Amino acid sequence: MDEPQVPADPDDEAEIPESHPRYESLLTRHRIEDGLEKGITSRQGLIAQGRGEAYDYLLGERTLESADEAAQAAAAALLLADRPVVSVNGNVAALCPGEVVDLAEATDAAIEVNLFNRTEERMEAIADHLRKHGASEVKGLAGDGKIPGLDHARATVDADGIESADTVLVPLEDGDRAEALGAMGKTEIVIDLNPLSRSAQTAAIPIVDNIIRAVPNVTAHARELQDASRADLRAIVESFDAAAALDAAEAAVRTGR
Ligand code: ATP
């Protein structure tokens, strides 16, 4: 059978046929490009996406069993938290805005826009985009808190958001900031396709998976666990082994199995 024809530069994601063998990758590229046009994603974000895609290709563009276990532990940690926050950068907002809103609802977490290259314009554009996808409150614009140990621009967060959170989900965080957040004593959950990245290595719970698959997967686990006891949730978090999950992901990248 002939492969479905896809316009080189689709105007709308509906033009990408779901039957295309590289559907997910084409959709991702389209959303990132669209995010750039809307002022949501930075040009640096395109490079980050390229690195992620390379790892996803090597992982077979699937959710590993170890990543699914990590997603379950992440859901349990978010449900246990007193002040959970989901951090959103330009790539996350472009790729899965509605899915982030669903996750925040399922875990009663706040959503905070948190940018490596912070500009007020991009902060506003991302907050607007999230509101269009159903977010009722978006933090990050106040910028009245900080992450200790980083220079001013990269340290800025909200005092009643990431600064005072006990558990943060930081998909695609820069390694340096992931380390600084970990040093604040927070339970840090990272989503990153590269098991060797410093962010994944620093996290209490690293989910080595594409955010497009990982965010809805954490939400599905959170819904399954919503009536679980705190003791059961704690047991899930405590039995999760971050080093073993990273080893399994690295082995999958190296061997394709
Ligand atoms: P380090 O954490 O080692 O300091 P880095 O922060 O310099 O690495 P960047 O290239 O800045 O790495 O960040 C991009 C990271 O995000 C990469 O590790 C890449 O694998 C990951 N990434 C990019 N797109 C996705 C995606 N769609 N889903 C999950 N992870 C992704």
Quaternary structure annotation: single chain
At CATH level 3, the topology is Rossmann fold
CATH architectural label = 3-Layer(aba) Sandwich
Secondary-structure element string: HHHEHHEHEHEEHEHEHHH
- Across the major sheet, the strand order is 2-1-5-6-7
User: What's the CATH first level?
Assistant: Alpha Beta
In one word, what is the shape?
Answer: globular
Q: How many extended strands?
A: 7
Low-confidence segments: none
Structure ligands: adenosine-5'-triphosphate
Number of helices: 12
* Residue-averaged pLDDT: 93
Number of domains: 1
The CATH superfamily is identified as Phosphopantoate/pantothenate synthetase
Radius of gyration: 18 Å
- Per DSSP, what share of the residues sits in E-state strands of 2 or more residues? 5-15%
Please characterize this protein's 3D structure.
With about 260 residues, this protein is α/β, with parallel strands linked by helices. It has one domain: Phosphopantoate/pantothenate synthetase (Rossmann fold). It has 12 helices and 7 strands. A 5-stranded parallel beta sheet has the order 2-1-5-6-7, sandwiched between helices. It has a two-stranded antiparallel sheet with strand order 3-4. Helix 9 links the parallel strand 6 and strand 7. About 45% of the residues are buried. Bound molecules: adenosine-5'-triphosphate (ATP).
